[in-house]
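User: Sequence in, structure out. Go.
Assistant: Echoing your sequence, followed by the C-alpha cells.
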Amino acid sequence: MFHIIMCTYNAQKYLEEQLQSIADSTVKDFVIHIFDDGSTDKTLEVIKSFQRKHSDCNIKCEVNENNLGAWRNFLVGVQKVGNKIIDDDYIMLSDQDDIWKDDKISLTYNAMKMLEKEYGKDKPLLVSTDVTLIDEDKNILSKSYAARNNFNTSHTDLPHALMENHVQGCTIMINKTLADAVTEIPYVATMHDAWLSLIAISLGHIAYLNKQTMYYRDISSSVTGHNKTYREDLKSKWLTLNKQRQIVLAPIPMYKEFIRIYGHELQEEDMEAFNAYIGLDSNGFIRKRYDIVHMRLWKTGFMRNAGLMMLV
C-alpha cells in the first residue's frame, strides 16, 4: 500500500487537477492523506467535491488545529501516517499544485525495491526523482530540473548533501523505517525534504531516479529563478555574493538541530562533516577552506565551488 501525504493551504486553483493526476495513476493501491493547514479559500470544498465524484479514490482529510507551515506540516504528517502503516507500506509526498505522470508511483517503487534488495528494509530508505518544470499555464520551462540547475545527482553522500540538496520533497518515496526515524519534529529546518534526506543519507540510504516522473508547477518562476539558464543563474549569484553567503550559512541552525536529535547515531566521519559545515560561520579563513577540501564539502561544478571559496 502507498500512502500519499499531501499538505494543502489555499489550494483551490490547482488542487483538483493534482488529485485527478494521482487518481489516474497506473497503480491504484494507495490512500491520499490530506493535511490542510487552515485554508481560507475553497480548498476543503474542492476536496469534498472530488471525494463525491471519485468514491473509489481513498482520500482522508484532516484540518490542523493550528497553522504549522509547509515543512512542519509534512513532517507531522509523516509521523502520523508512519505510526499507522506496516513494514510493507510506503509513504510518498505530494504538493498541492503539481501534476503526476501516471507511472510515477510504479517507477519510484521499482527504484525503492532495488534499494531494499541491496540494503534491506531495516534501514531508512528514500528515493527521489527528477521533474519537468512548468509554469502556471502548463507551459514547459525546462524538461529536467536537474539538468537546468546542472546538478550532479550521482552525488548522494553526506558532504555533498550538506552543501546542495538535490531532493525535491514532491518526488520522494520513503519506507516505514525512515518514517519511524522521525522521532521528533525539529525546532528549525529549511524544508522537510532536506530533513528527510539527511536522515536517509546519515542513517540509511538514498537513491536518485534520473527520470521526470511529474510536472512541477513553478508558480513563482520569476522569483525563484527557475526560468533562468544555468549561466544566467551563476551570473546573478556572482553579482550578489553577500546574499549568497547568507544562503550558504542558512542551513546551519538545522544542522545543529539534526546533531541534537541524531548525533548519537552518526558515524564519526559524518559528525565531522556536520561540524565542518557548522564551522563555516565561525572558524578562521584557513581552517574553513581546509575543512571544505578535507571533508569534500563540494557543490556541483567548478564555478559554484570557486564561488563557495570566495563566500566563506
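User: And one key feature?
Assistant: Strands lie at 2-8, 30-36, 59-63, 90-94, 99-100, 125-134, 140-142, 173-175, 205-217.
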